[in-house]
Design a protein that fits this description.
By secondary structure, the protein is of the alpha+beta class. It has a domain at 1-35. The protein contains 8 helices and 5 strands. The chain has helices at 52-63, 73-79, 86-95, 131-134, 144-147, 157-160, 170-173, 183-188, and strands at 4-10, 13-20, 23-26, 121-122, 125-126. The strands form 2 sheets. It has a 3-stranded antiparallel β-sheet, with no helix packed on it. It has a two-stranded antiparallel sheet with strand order 4-5.
């Protein structure tokens, strides 16, 4: 189809339209006022006119059901504190945290009262002591080596409680160092120095002085 020019009369004067093949070219602007252009095709090329529905559908696809508080770029920026390096900030922050499973800490670990849902354990052994019992160690001046003496002790709680109220000094308690059997049992098998009474056969290696055996002839 040959090119041709169409002159249109409108309230502001004459408007020239040029038809080139299947295209209609406009010189100047179109005064739409309250009029509408309808039935435009879908956008294909970069310079195509977009219909409202096409724009609405495109924006909706981007928002894709986001909550109203996060459906604009400004709201999204505010949600990440306007941090343009948000990914780096989060990665750095996570690097300073410990995992929940088998964490490894450094320095001094400080925390509030522990409310454990299960018994605390040391090397897989549950701690059954109460807080009051554990607090007895508060202020203890014993060294680690001294406390480790308890490692392997098989005495029961009742037996250990015999120590409750003991006023003996460390030196006095150390007298029992090396004892391997019941002290009272050992003492019961010994004779006193004053007026001892023996049973069985008494053997004397050497005798100096007189011994009153308490045997008299009638």
């Amino acid at each position: 189809m040959a090119d041709r020019k169409i002159t249109v009369l409108n309230p502001s004067g004459y408007q020239e339209l040029f038809q080139s093949g299947d295209n209609l070219l406009l010189s100047g602007t179109i005064q739409m006022n309250s009029n509408l252009i309808t039935d435009l095709p879908n956008c294909v090329n970069d310079n195509d006119v977009a219909r409202k529905k096409y724009v609405d559908d495109s924006v909706s696809a981007i928002v894709s059901g986001a909550p109203s508080a996060l459906d604009t770029l400004n709201e999204l920026a505010a949600a990440i504190a306007d941090d343009s390096n948000y990914a780096t900030t989060i990665t750095t922050a996570l690097g300073l945290k410990s995992p929940i499973a088998s964490p490894t800490f450094t320095g001094t670990v400080t925390g509030p009262t522990i409310n454990a849902s299960t018994a605390l354990q040391i090397s897989g052994v549950a701690i059954t002591s109460t807080a009051t019992e554990l607090n007895i160690l508060d202020g203890a001046t014993a060294t680690t080596a001294e406390l480790n003496i308890l490692d392997g002790v098989t005495a029961t709680a009742a037996e250990l409680n015999i120590l409750d109220g003991v006023t003996a000094t460390t030196t006095e308690l150390n007298y029992s160092d090396g004892v391997t059997s019941n002290i009272q049992t050992q003492i019961d098998t010994k004779a006193p120095l004053a007026s001892p009474t023996f049973t069985g056969t008494v053997t004397v290696a050497a005798m100096d002085g007189e011994i009153d055996c308490g045997v008299y002839a009638s």
